[in-house]
Design a protein that fits this description.
This protein is mainly alpha-helical. It has a domain of 143 residues: Nitrile hydratase alpha /Thiocyanate hydrolase gamma (Nitrile Hydratase, Chain A, Alpha-Beta Complex), CATH 3.90.330.10. It has a two-stranded parallel sheet with strand order 1-4. Strands 2-3 form a two-stranded parallel ribbon. Bound molecules: fe (iii) ion. Fe (iii) ion (FE) binds next to loops. Pfam families: NHase_alpha (PF02979). Belongs to the nitrile hydratase subunit alpha family. It comes from Rhizobium fredii.
């Protein structure tokens, strides 16, 4: 997967490959087909595993980063200055050459991440990207009409709130730090992490309230 992101850059840290398989993707596809035909694997079981990584296992790393950021001002500071190092200190590291930047939601500004050219995603903290993140409608419309896209995710932001859209590249991946919900003063990091959804770290959602998480 990293191979297609090296060399042939267009100055953006990308090159165009939206409609073609990378070498790795083609090999994985071929393996899946052979193993399925031989009756060795069930594609539905693979889908279930992928789904688990997308929604459950992967994003838990990011949730721990956010919970620590909410609880520990020194860590929040570090994350703001050098997200790559702060995140690595928790044991979550990217591939060689990738850097992380954390963007913090505030009462004035909401942050949204996208990769307009392909599907660059902070996999070390969020796991595998959801299908919609890789789909052309999200990639094109997140930039042109972020407010409309968020509304489709059920997130209606007040008109006065600014939306900043961050375009990920092979070299730089973003993590949204959602605002800490009200009524969470007494919670420890583990309880806080349970409020941090995957979508809240992409910017297509907010962190859950303690009532909603129950
Ligand atoms: Fe990309």
């Amino acid at each position: 997967m990293s191979k297609h992101h090296r060399g042939h850059d267009d100055g953006h840290g990308h090159h165009h490959h939206a409609n073609q398989f990378t070498d790795m993707e083609a090999r994985v596809k071929a393996l899946e087909t052979v193993l399925t035909e031989k009756g060795l694997i069930d594609p539905a079981a693979i889908d279930a595993i992928v789904e688990t990584y997308e929604t459950k296992i992967g994003p838990r790393n990011g949730a721990r980063v956010v919970a620590k950021t909410w609880s520990d001002p020194d860590f929040a500071d570090w994350l703001k200055r050098d997200a790559t190092a702060a995140i690595a200190s928790l044991g979550f590291t990217g591939r060689q050459g990738e850097h992380m930047r954390a963007v913090f939601n505030t009462p004035d500004t909401h942050n949204l991440i996208v990769c307009t050219l392909c599907s660059c995603y902070p996999w070390a903290v969020l796991g595998l990207p959801p299908v919609w993140y890789k789909a052309p409608p999200y990639r094109s419309r997140a930039v042109i009409d972020p407010r409309g896209v968020l509304a489709e995710f059920g997130l209606e932001l007040p008109g006065a709130k600014k939306i900043r859209v961050w375009d990920s590249t092979a070299e730089l991946r973003y993590l949204v730090v959602p605002e800490r919900p009200e009524g969470t003063a007494g919670l420890d990091e583990e309880a806080l992490a349970a409020l941090v959804t995957r979508d809240s770290m992409i910017g297509t959602g907010l962190a859950l309230s303690p009532e909603a998480a129950r």
